[in-house]
Amino acid sequence: MTHKKIRDQEVHAVNEGSRALEPKPEPRSTLTRVLLIGGLALFAILVWKSGPDLIGGLLLRVGWALPLVFLPHALVTALEASGWWFAFPQIGCPIKLIALLRFSVAAKAIQLVTPSISQAGELLKIHLLRVSGVSADVSIASVVAAKTTITLAELLFIGIGLAAVLSYVTIEPLLVMSLSIGILVMCLAVVGLLIWQRIGLFRPLVWASRRLGLLTTFLDRHEESLSSTDRMLREYLDERKRFYLSWLGYFLGWVAGAVEAWLFLSILGLPNDPLSALLVQAWLVLVTRLTAFVPANLGTHEAGTVMIFSFLGLTAHSAIAFALLRRVRQIVWIALGLAILAKVPRAQYSRLLGKSF
User: Fold this and answer.
1) pLDDT reported for residue 204
2) How far apart are CA 32 and CA 114, in angstroms?
3) pTM above 0.90, yes or no
4) What residue ranges do the domains of the chain occupy?
5) How far apart are CA 180 and CA 160, in angstroms?
């Protein structure tokens, strides 16, 4: 057998393994549709209660500054892409940074239009890496590592926001305890994920399947790829420089989100001290995570904005105006992400959307 034939067979085997590792599409969720309708209803009620004329008056103040609404998120996306770049194993990212940036925009678009709890954005990242020729083990390892570092960065950012709240005003001890317990649970989950990666992400699956005689055909074909992914994750955790750089990239991305909040407050003519912007951004990050089951956090994002603005002594219509600016920015970046995905055959990624809608 020629060397070319052997190589073709190896490439075919890796491609088959990656397709087997991709999660199968699930039936469309009626619950998700119900949540979407409920979110739309909540959104409409909040706009009606806050006063559409007052909201429109505030939005008219934006005027020439409207293009600034879209620019800060470019910095957020670039920092997130850098975090993913450093989440690749020791061999580094095998594709160009600009390609990784495009993939980040596309994955973020899918994440914004689906319940983030479905992790459709992460699955799409793996798929886009695979169609770019990156092996299955490297693709999965990079996405898992990136998910770990971005969660750690998010926890630190929320913790700083909570500390800022406590220094800002005195709030009910029960609320402080509830928020602290929530952050503690998230911290424990991340610690558990790190321990799981250290042991081997797929090792429990392999062990249980061998003992129970399940998935034997699958394991016979793909155990090597699964073991390779586990090895890469362990090596990545040992290579602390790349781990910390990935974490730093994502953390700066959250900070850039606070800068965006400050800019939105400024162009709306609202109190725009840095501490208020930090409080708003940290609170909305927490609201996004707590309502991850709602598609695009529709309605819940607006309700959370009204809550934090009320806490800061700002009006409900100013909160809705702020939230609508963020929605406008989201729509523009979602359109950009979908335009990037238009170059990928629809059948290859529509399954990810089908899991949620």
Assistant:
1) 66
2) 9
3) no
4) 66-345
5) 12
Give the count of beta carbons closer than 10 Å to the beta carbon of residue 154: 21
Average pLDDT estimate for 156-178 = 71
- Cβ burial, residue 246 (10 Å; 0-12/13-18/19+): buried
Q: Residues 146, 246: contact at Cβ < 8 Å?
A: yes
* Mean pLDDT (the chain, rounded): 79
Cα separation, 324 vs 313, in Å, equals 19
State yes or no: pLDDT of 13 exceeds 60. Answer: no
Longest dimension (CA), the chain: 76
**Which three-class secondary structure state does DSSP give residue 357?**
coil
d(CA 357, CA 344): 20
Paired tokens of 19: 């397709």
**Per-residue tokens: 142:** 């990079």
CB-based contact 39:294 (threshold 8 Å):
yes
Range 333-354 average pLDDT = 72
Angle, vertex CA 26, rays to CA 22 and CA 31, nearest 5: 140
Tell me the two tokens of residue 181. Answer: 């317990």
CA triple 54-274-276, angle to 5 deg: 50
The more confident residue out of 208 and 150 is 150
What's the rounded Cα separation, in Å, for the pair 330 and 70? Answer: 8
129 neighbors 230 (Cβ within 8 angstroms): no
Quote the tokens at residue 305.
């904005």
For the beta carbon of residue 289, count every other beta carbon within 10 angstroms: 17
What token pair was written down for 134? 């990156």
Asked whether 301 and 322 are in contact (CB, 8 A), the reply is: no
Task: For residue 34, give the 3-state DSSP assignment.
Answer: helix
Backbone angles phi, psi at 176, to 5 degrees: -60, -45
